[in-house]
Structures are given as C-alpha cells and as structure tokens.
Amino acid sequence: MARTNIEEGAFRRVSKLAGLMGCSDREALGTVAYLWSDSQDILAFQGTREQIAEWCHLFNMSDDEITKWISSLERARIISIENDITDKNGGPIFRIHGNEIQIENMVSYSVRASKGGKALKKKWKEKKRLGASLKHSSSTLPENEKQAPSTTKHYKSKQNNSKQNNTNTNAPEIFSELSAFYRDTFPGTTTGPSAKARFADQVREPEDVELIRRAIVHYSEFLKHDANSWRKPKTSFETFLGTKSSGFFWKDFVDPPALPLSPSAAPDLSDLNWTGPEGAS
Question: Looking at the structure, do residues 167 and 212 belong to the same domain, yes or no?
Fold first, then answer.
C-alpha cells in the first residue's frame, strides 16, 4: 500500500472541516486521511457522492449526515464539483483536491523502484484518458443538462454571482499581470494564444485571481524540490491553466505541495481494477 502524504497546508482545511462539522480536529483529519488513502490506492482523483462517502468511511450514517459531511468537505476545499460531468442519475462528480499530483508522484517513483511500475504507469494514463473522454462527451449535452446539481447553498450562491463578478476579474490588466508573473517565475515560458480565453472562462470570482497567483508560487516550489529536478514547467501560461477536457492543471497547486514519495514507498499493485466514477456519463 502506498504512503499517504498530508501537506502542511492541508491542516488548515482540516481544521475548517472540523469547525463546519462541529467535530474534533482528530475526527476530521481521520476522515480526510481515509478519503485520500482509499482513493489514491485505486488511482482515483474523482468520484461520485457514494464513492466519496465510502472512501471517507462514512458508514452507518443517515443520508442527512452524509450530505452534511460532503457539503462541509466542499466548503473546506477538500473536494469540489466537476461542472462538466455527472453520474448516470445526473448527480455530481467530485474532484479530490491534491490527488492527481500525489498519484503522479507515486507513479513516477514506482516506475523507477519496482518491476510493476510500468504497468502502474500504463494504468494511470488510461484513467486520465478516461476522465478526459468523459468530460469531452459531456460537453456535447444540451446546456440545461451540463450543470451538475450542487449539494450546498454555498455552491449555488457562487453560480448565481459568477456573471456579475466575471467583468471585474477578467479585466485585461489582471490577465496581463498574472501571465507576466508566470513568465517571470518560469523563464523561457510563453503566454500562449489561448491563454486569455481560458483565463476568462475559469476566473469567475475575485478570489480566483489570488488562487491562480498562489498556484504559480506553489508550482515553482514543487519544481525546485530535488526529487523533481527532472521536471520542466508547463511551457506556457495557457497550458498551466488547462481546459475542461485536459483538466485545470493549476488547481492541484492551490495548496502547498506535499513532498514527493520516496522510492521505498512503492504502491501496492494488486488492486487496479477501478475504471472511473461509477455510472459517469
């Protein structure tokens, strides 16, 4: 079984989760640790409501209690709704923050440290391809069917205010400032021809601007670590932002990065049959 890394910045979110749930920090931390451990073991970075509840070990709870936990996990920014895909019943698919980069690290070290590493890498590539294809197929749905229902009033409020906030957050000078900050942080990179459109599509609230700025700083810290010296930064601000089909790359670096796994922490390859969020369409 792979080691579960919990970065220092995550404890602030865990503390917020405890406050929202009215439980101890220890209970909140245990719940989140189970979520990360169980999902990463099967290379999952997104899941349905039922899967999130199972990975969090929310067993023998009422539906209302599970809804409160998942709502609080959202508000604490441990998970978030994927806007462009739903499960077979039209319910939300949730992204587990931090999982994708943790799995990338696990796969990278496994390739070097074990004979089964190449098989794991192939499996991981297939899972990412499946996730991208699910998003692509969902993008062809009618507009009134694309949006997954929210589990919280907080999320609905964000949606209602998005158009009003979009005008201010996508001012040309803000985009120019952030794209220049990216190029200055990673010399030799460019802005990219589609960067402005992607920025306008993704930045809906004033706080999103600060989150992207923070992600650039954390991405720089991640690449500076000795274990990541072989990695190169995304070649442009455009690719750093990403898309719905490829995934919004920057969102995995909103919080401080965890240190990569050591070669001795090679994952268990015995259970790799998970094929994606159950019933995703």
Answer: yes
